Amino acid sequence: EVQLVESGGGVVQPGGSLRLSCATSGFTFSLYAMTWVRQAPGKGLEWVSSVDNSDYTKYADSVKGRFTISRDNARSTLYLQMNNLQSEDAAIYYCAKYPTNWIRGLDYDYRGQGTQVTVSS
After folding, report:
1. Which residues make Cβ contacts (< 8 Å) with residue 57, sequence separation at least 6?
2. Under a CB-based contact definition with an 8 Å cutoff, are residues 111 and 98 in contact?
3. Cα 80 to chain center, whole Å?
4. Residue 13 above 90 pLDDT?
5. Cα 27 to chain center, whole Å?
6. How far is the C-alpha of 69 from the C-alpha of 46, rounded, in Å?
7. Do 19 and 8 form a contact (C-beta atoms < 8 A)?
8. Which residue(s) pair with 60 in the sheet?
9. pLDDT tens sequence across 44-58
């Protein structure tokens, strides 16, 4: 059974940082591209960043230069380092697995339950 479990969310002041983690199991993590997506209150799902199994990365323009995605294949874990957080970054962040090693936007096949990120002064 594929499982994705996010952690690391919380409350942070504008300009602050958080590091999200996504522990995975039930599949061979190193074979697949992975992604982070988010959903702010009252808004649709937004693609944030993705990484393939060769560590090629892509970022949404809204987070480029502030967020860094990474993966640890030995630990089957995905990360998202978020710096200089702003109010518009507040959302539930989800880790998701793609069905192949191709980065495909929101076309993933499994997603975790999410972790809440709140940005507030």
Report:
1. 49, 50, 51, 69
2. no
3. 6
4. yes
5. 18
6. 15
7. yes
8. none
9. 999 999 999 999 999
What's the number of CA atoms in the CB half-sphere (13 Å) around residue 91?
Answer: 21
Task: Report the pLDDT averaged over residues 30-39.
Answer: 98
In the chain, count of helices (H) and strands (E)?
0, 11
Amino acid type, 20: L
Whole-angstrom distance, CA of residue 33 vs CA of residue 75: 15
Q: Rounded to whole angstroms, how far apart are CA atoms 40 and 27?
A: 29
* Coil, helix or strand at residue 90: coil
Rounded to whole angstroms, the Cα distance separating 71 from 107 reads 19
Ordered strands of the 18-25 beta sheet: 3-7, 18-25, 77-82, 67-72
Number of residues that this document lists for the chain:
121
